Design the sequence.
């Protein structure tokens, strides 16, 4: 046997495999599995630490940038299970993003010079905060390639807004949020003339500039307000990552930089490349900006206008004492303010040191006007040694630092060494190191950017996977590795392949802070967060022609699309508006039409639209794309596009089957028997405290709707039978039955939920 009885038994207990009479069997099964799969006890313990039982929930939710996919990746921790991709800058068919009219309007906000940009390079997600704590309301994500920001509402995980920076041509250092989400920071990366004008590179020093933009966030409506946003002009250095101050440093922002040599390359002309000219100096500069005073200066009218956007010039920033430079190790890629706001840490990719700056020391230097020099643009430069608390050698290629829940403990990613270093930034000593696979970029701890980091886990965002996973061709996934940081020594628990884009950075929030919608109010436009002007109710579906457009006001519910047949003439513009009538959570319907690139996702309560030109005569089936019920395949319809000038069809249809009285009576008996089953389920539910379970209340509401529809179909069936039209009587009896089946399905789901979640019987 691989392990002694005591160890195996302890492991069985840890894994919940049963005790008492099943102890020996559990031991044998566990050891057999370990032997067959070549697992060590360490492997099994690591698996136990990440395992979330079926139906269980993760403690934390991570939001990772999706790189060139233009999306955000959502996964749970510690399970590392991917939960969702959030579409931001690029169309995404499953969510209908970029296919329905409502989300097309959001994407259109991100047009550049009037042109659609159908990709984004997402880098840095940031969570909204209240008093420096993550509040779980909004997520912001940038697009490095095209300087844009997107706002994602975490009540429904949908992108609600995209803004385009009016003066930048690239950006990287953003988004970062103030402790109360008053502003969202976005820093330029590669210097360019502000506003988009052309100047030759020979005028680089005079005409090219960097900048930091402070986007005003309206917390009442959850949108960025460009009219109240502003920028601070910076020298033509390449700005990089940023952070806002906390506590004593609140009111200041910090942005590091590289290529302060202002080298302009030219390898095609025989000159050394950018990487040579941009790494000659031993230090680059932190840009330290008093953003609160900057906002006051803008309000006082001291900003210039560039493309209609307020910009404080370098001269104004220097004159008003809101902009300072602090030397930092060259080519840095990290700017991280401590939870208490007293320190900020920077690392240089071409150095081995992490540098801890003291905010108190920096402010004393500024107060006493104790400056070491000025840069070519007149900005005061503080003395490096007088600004720092300490420097520590942490490894070759340090990048990004995250904070632990333990005081003074931080973790820094070490790119060249492929390691994470745990160290004490108060006393300046290395505590532990762990190897990762491979070439780590950023890393994150749980709520590590907030005033109260949670510790427990760290995720290493590795740029290379190499040999870690099954080969899938030359383009490999990247590797997010979960590390246990709860003890003195770090422990690697899990390798997670990331098969989307080039994830750059991630943030993680306690799952209980997220308060998501399970469904929308019926007829809701989720992108504008208001009732849709095109919503429809059952029985009120209609097709109308308005201003030359044929509008189809329809509904979706298990298992039919109303209307089922839409007829238009060649060349007409058609606009489908479909409302999902379901109230039960997770009862999404889809909608697709052949040939017209129509693909919609309608979550419960949502109204979505698709507008297109029916430019070719023909028969075009449409159907529900989500497997929503037993008769999902029957959830269908036809768009008929008749040739231009042809008269509309009469509507008369030759039936494929004729039903008689015996068929009618047989179907009615089935329906009566089915109702008896439904009644028993209803009796069970109503005899329990079902109103204490919101999910069950929603299911009961949906089931009641279905039974109301069944009653209406029953009435029609009986009316036809009374006229001895057993054909239509049978068909309506079948529809009566379909509503019953759906009601029973919903009711049984509610009953199972009550049984599994401890519902108690109540006295009637």
Sequence:
């Amino acid at each position: 046997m691989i392990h002694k009885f005591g160890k195996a038994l302890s492991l069985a207990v840890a894994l919940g495999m049963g005790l008492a009479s099943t102890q020996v069997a559990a031991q044998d099964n566990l050891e057999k599995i370990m032997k067959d799969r070549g697992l060590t006890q360490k492997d099994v313990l690591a698996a136990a630490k990440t395992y979330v039982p079926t139906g269980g929930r993760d403690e934390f939710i991570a939001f990772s940038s999706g790189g060139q996919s233009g999306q955000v990746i959502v996964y749970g921790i510690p399970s590392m299970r991917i939960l969702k991709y959030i579409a931001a800058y690029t169309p995404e068919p499953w969510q209908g993003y970029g296919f329905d009219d409502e989300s097309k309007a959001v994407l259109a906000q991100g047009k550049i010079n009037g042109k659609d940009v159908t990709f984004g390079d997402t880098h840095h997600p940031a969570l909204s905060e209240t008093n420096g704590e993550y509040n779980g309301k909004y997520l912001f994500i940038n697009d490095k390639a095209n300087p844009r920001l997107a706002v994602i509402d975490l009540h429904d995980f949908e992108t609600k807004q995209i803004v385009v920076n009016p003066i930048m041509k690239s950006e990287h250092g953003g988004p970062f949020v103030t402790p109360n989400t008053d502003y969202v920071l976005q820093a330029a990366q590669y210097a360019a003339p502000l506003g988009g004008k052309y100047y030759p590179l020979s005028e680089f020093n005079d005409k090219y500039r960097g900048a930091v933009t402070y986007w005003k966030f309206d917390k009442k409506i959850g949108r960025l307000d460009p009219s109240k946003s502003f920028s601070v002009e910076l020298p033509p250095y390449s700005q990089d990552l940023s952070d806002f101050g906390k506590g004593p440093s609140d009111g200041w922002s910090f942005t590091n930089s590289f290529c302060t040599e202002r080298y302009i390359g030219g390898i095609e002309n025989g000159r050394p490349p950018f990487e040579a000219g941009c790494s000659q100096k031993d230090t680059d500069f932190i840009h330290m900006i008093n953003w609160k005073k900057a906002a006051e200066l803008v309000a006082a009218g001291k900003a210039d206008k560039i493309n209609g956007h307020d910009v404080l010039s370098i001269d104004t920033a220097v004159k008003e004492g809101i902009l300072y430079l602090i030397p930092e190790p060259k080519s840095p890629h990290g700017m991280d303010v401590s939870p208490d706001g007293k320190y900020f840490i920077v690392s240089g990719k071409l150095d081995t040191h992490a540098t801890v700056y003291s905010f108190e020391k920096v402010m004393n230097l500024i107060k006493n006007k104790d400056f070491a020099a000025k840069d070519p643009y007149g900005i005061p430069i503080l003395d490096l040694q007088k600004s720092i608390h300490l420097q520590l050698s942490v490894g070759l290629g340090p990048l990004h630092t995250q904070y632990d829940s333990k005081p003074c403990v931080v973790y820094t990613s070490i790119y060249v060494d492929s390691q994470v270093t745990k160290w004490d930034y108060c006393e300046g000593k290395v505590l532990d190191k762990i190897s990762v696979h491979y070439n780590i970029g950023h890393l994150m701890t749980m709520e590590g950017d907030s005033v109260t980091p949670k510790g427990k886990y760290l995720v290493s965002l590795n740029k290379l996977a190499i040999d870690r996973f099954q080969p899938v061709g030359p383009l490999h996934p990247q590797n997010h590795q979960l590390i246990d940081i709860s003890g003195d020594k770090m422990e690697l628990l899990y390798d997670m392949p990331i098969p989307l884009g080039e994830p750059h950075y991630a943030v993680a929030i306690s799952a209980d802070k997220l308060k998501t919608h399970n469904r929308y109010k019926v007829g809701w436009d989720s992108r504008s967060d208001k009732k849709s002007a095109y919503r429809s109710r059952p029985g009120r579906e209609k097709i109308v022609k308005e201003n030359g457009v044929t509008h189809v006001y329809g509904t979706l519910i298990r298992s039919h699309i109303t209307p089922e047949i839409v007829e238009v003439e060649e060349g007409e513009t058609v606009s489908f508006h479909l409302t999902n009538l379901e109230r039960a959570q997770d009862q999404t319907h889809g909608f697709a039409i052949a040939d017209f690139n129509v693909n919609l996702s309608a979550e419960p309560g949502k109204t979505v639209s698709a507008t297109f030109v029916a430019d070719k005569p023909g028969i075009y089936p449409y159907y529900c794309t989500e497997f929503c019920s037993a008769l999902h395949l029957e959830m269908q319809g036809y768009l008929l596009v008749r040739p231009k000038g042809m008269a509309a069809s009469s509507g008369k249809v030759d039936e494929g089957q004729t039903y008689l009285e015996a068929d009618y009576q047989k179907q009615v008996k089935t329906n009566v028997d089915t109702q008896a089953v439904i009644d028993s389920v209803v009796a069970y539910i109503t005899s329990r405290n079902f109103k204490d379970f919101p999910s069950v209340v929603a299911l009961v509401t949906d089931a009641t709707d279905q039974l109301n529809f069944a009653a209406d179909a029953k009435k029609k069936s009986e009316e036809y039978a009374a006229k001895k039209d057993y054909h239509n009587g049978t068909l309506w009896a079948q529809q009566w039955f379909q509503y019953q089946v759906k009601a029973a399905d919903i009711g049984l789901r509610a009953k199972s939920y009550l049984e599994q979640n401890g519902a108690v019987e109540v006295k009637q």
In short: Confidence is low (pLDDT under 50) at residues 1-21. The radius of gyration is 31 Å. DSSP finds 13 helices and 44 strands in the chain.
